[in-house]
């Protein structure tokens, strides 16, 4: 339709090597701010109605809390507790008070001070896909998650600056469950220098994980409480239920001054109302209940609002990602988070079974939903396949490209007189080109984002090179990153500082996860 | 990382058939409004500086205009013309006057009145990938574009409501160039009922194309001028040049009251400054020159601002799509269009050679750039591969899914008391599910967007079904659409009304494209 320039892919096409190869651009995407204005999926009145409806749900219907200790805390705070049904009805004045003590801005500590983050509205952080029971890559195929996969994916997280917080991408199922937390903490502490993740799988595991952080980082109790060294995600059991490990995790992390991300996992049409607005109202009620438990445990405890709301696929019953409903839910969750003034967590992901076009669409559409919803952190933003059942190594690399594309936009582009380049335009005659102008030569090395895996060569060159898809090219990239991996300097000596503790704890029976 | 619900893909996963199959959702995406607030890549001052700099470019440096008739029109309008160099320097008062006569809202006519569109800021229209010299599908492979491919892709455009304006996706290279416009117009007029596209490839071709529209639609001259029946895209030859067919097209369409979309194709670092701000300033100058030519030809002529600005890939010299620079350029172009108050055209696309994850990333990232830039129409939004060298049938289907995802968001979701569903939440006990609630049963058939090609089945079912990628599944979809295709009722009798004209015009030698 266009003239020959556009339809032929531009005169530039084929000018291979017309410009000197570009050097690496700086990709230290630290403490990024979201460059986009938050969007609105619902009116201010509708958001207020969702918030009020959520308060009604907690006040009139209540939430089932399985942990005795948590119900005691709610009772002491003035909630109405029915021990037979374990139902807790929380008056809105209790919730409102909790929202006044929840911090608006949280310092996330890291072994490397340069990796510290400020967790608040306006920040833009990314976490890799996490919690996957399986792993997949083009060379080894699909397999149950093991310690090798857990460590490899941690090192991939560490290898890309655009991943800001660590998480367990692959579950090391070959490590016995009563010893697994030792291996998982050792893996993070010996290989990573970004903010850490600790599973809330029981009191003893949590306390031992905290102790390993103190040992590895050389912290006394005051140092450990100075900012947040450990973060966990708490999922309520929608609808309206807080189970034992989740309730206990909120309490244990609050007492230790560490961060919980309260994330109801509401599937519209399954565990939540089929309408996005109704599912958001339920999500909001459950998140407020968890935030309240944290604050009545310890006023000022670092806590994050969380939303992971999508629709169920009516055909397969699976959770859908990147659908219009998912995007709308992300934007609506952001409106609710801003309504209560708290930082919040969103998520992307993919239901696809393979790192194909569908997987890219699902992940990128949901990523934009999270970014346009002003999410403080977007979880599962690299590598998720099968709705989280599998962590794909190639998918991880492909997603990093998308995250880096968004991250580049966090830095404004120059538009001063020098950048506008009136003189350069004057120098180039009509129909000429800018390749050799001083304006170009001064800037070409850092002017553009340099693709990680995208291949823009023409069809002939692409065929000559083997007609590889992006997912096929990604294999060489993760292999190279793992081959080149060197643990950060700040991890030196960590193994020695941990071994005695881990050996003794293991010999004394370890710590089983609690239900 | 999450609890078992989330990491296992949700309890919903595996509930195959727990909910009755969903009926088709209405997908008549007509006269959509953009639901997103336009974003800003540059400050208001910077946008004003780009606009002022563009006026300086036209006033002090000028633009080379190859067509004598166009230079005459500029001279009569008061521009300074140097016949030796063919350079035209346009005073800002001439440009400013043109911007006052350019219409803000344009009625796009269609054979089917329900397909009419209002072309203005705030509207959100999509056009398929266009102008491709080659075609590709999984069954026939990559091949030079021919009439069969041209007609098949027109029928695919007609088959999806989310494509709002027609364009020549595939160039019918097997039709002699002096007869090609007859075949292309017949194809549109006999198979399509949406707003039409006419190539500006010379005066006689344009006039004959307009005549075929009048004959097919039974329009007299007044009826043809009542709104816009034909649209074309004008690409300036960056930097600072308007060639013969482009200049002539602007004049011919303006005189006939038909719409030109003035679209400089500026590749930052190649035919434009390497900075996005500088490339935008050049784009703006060239677009203003074309808009001015249209208005001095015929005040009030329907004309659209256009931007197709991305960066050149420094490694291959190819145009890049969906890069941070491309997204920034889309948003910046929207700011410039709103600065002058005119509707505008953006574009997406892909450089990838195959419908893989890269192709999806490139197209979706650029699509969001266009949507967040408030583009009135986004061109090349389905099917483009190889930077426009090839139209991919499977890529077309995969992109339709993305366009429908965006289109669904143009309709607000219900959030009244009934939608919030407090009573439904009250009916479902903690830990229960909403599958069988009245609230769900009343809504499940139309609650969610129904995927076109996405497959959310679990890994086992997916393997049983042949482990097909989305691109492989897309083949069956376009084949079915073509098999089911029936020309719209409004096209009945069109062939009879055109044949005599086409036969006579062909016998009298047809009409060669003009340079």
UniProtKB/TrEMBL annotation, chains A, B:
It comes from the Bacteria. One of its GO terms (molecular function) is methyltransferase activity. Transmembrane segments: none annotated. It is an enzyme of class 2 (transferase). It holds the Pfam family MTTB. One of its GO terms (biological process) is methylation. Keywords: Methyltransferase, Transferase. Residues 1-20 are annotated as: Disordered. Its EC number is 2.1.1.-. Belongs to the trimethylamine methyltransferase family. This is Methyltransferase.
């Amino acid at each position: 339709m266009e003239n020959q320039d556009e339809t032929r892919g531009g005169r530039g096409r084929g000018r291979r090597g017309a410009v000197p190869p570009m050097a690496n651009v700086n990709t230290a995407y630290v403490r990024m701010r979201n460059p986009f204005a938050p969007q609105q999926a619902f009116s201010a009145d509708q958001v207020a109605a969702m918030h009020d409806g959520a308060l009604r749900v907690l006040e009139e219907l209540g939430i089932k809390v399985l942990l005795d200790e948590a119900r005691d805390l709610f009772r002491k705070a003035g909630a109405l507790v029915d021990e037979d049904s374990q139902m807790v009805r929380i008056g809105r004045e209790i919730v409102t008070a909790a929202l006044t003590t929840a911090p608006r801005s949280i310092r996330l500590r890291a072994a490397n001070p340069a990796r510290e983050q400020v967790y608040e509205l306006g920040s833009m952080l990314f976490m890799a896909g996490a919690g996957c029971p399986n792993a997949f890559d083009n060379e080894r195929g699909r397999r149950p998650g093991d310690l090798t996969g857990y460590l490899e994916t941690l090192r991939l997280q560490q290898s890309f600056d655009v991943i800001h917080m660590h998480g367990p991408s692959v579950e090391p199922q070959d490590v016995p469950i009563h010893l697994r937390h030792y291996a998982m903490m050792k893996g993070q502490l010996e290989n990573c220098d970004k903010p850490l993740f600790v599973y809330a799988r029981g009191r003893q595991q949590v306390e031992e994980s905290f102790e390993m952080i103190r040992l590895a980082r050389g912290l006394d109790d005051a140092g450990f409480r100075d900012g947040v060294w450990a973060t966990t995600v708490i999922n309520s059991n929608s609808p309206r239920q807080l189970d034992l490990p989740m309730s206990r995790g909120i309490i244990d992390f609050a007492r230790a001054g560490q961060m919980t991300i309260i994330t109801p996992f509401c599937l519209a049409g399954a565990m939540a109302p089929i309408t996005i607005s109704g599912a958001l109202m339920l999500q909001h009620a459950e998140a407020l209940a968890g935030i309240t438990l944290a604050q009545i445990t310890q006023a000022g405890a670092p806590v994050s609002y969380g939303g992971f709301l999508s629709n169920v696929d009516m055909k397969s019953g699976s959770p859908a990602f990147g659908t219009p409903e998912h995007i709308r839910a992300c934007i609506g969750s952001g409106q609710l988070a801003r309504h209560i003034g708290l930082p919040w967590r969103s998520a992307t992901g993919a239901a696809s079974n393979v790192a194909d076009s569908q997987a890219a669409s699902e992940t990128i559409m949901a990523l934009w939903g999270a970014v346009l919803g002003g999410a403080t952190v977007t979880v599962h933003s690299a590598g998720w396949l099968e709705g989280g059942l599998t962590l794909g190594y190639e998918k991880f690399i492909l997603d990093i490209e998308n995250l880096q594309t968004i991250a580049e936009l966090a830095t404004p582009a120059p538009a001063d007189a020098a950048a506008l380049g009136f003189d350069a335009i004057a120098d180039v005659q009509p129909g000429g080109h800018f390749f050799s102008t001083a304006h170009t030569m001064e800037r070409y090395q850092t002017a553009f984002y340099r693709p990680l895996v995208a291949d823009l060569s023409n069809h002939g060159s692409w065929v000559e090179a083997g007609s590889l898809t992006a997912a096929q090219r990604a294999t060489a990239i993760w292999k190279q990153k793992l081959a080149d991996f060197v643990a950060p300097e700040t991890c030196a000596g960590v193994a020695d500082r941990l071994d005695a503790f881990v050996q003794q704890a293991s010999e004394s029976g370890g710590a089983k996860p609690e239900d």
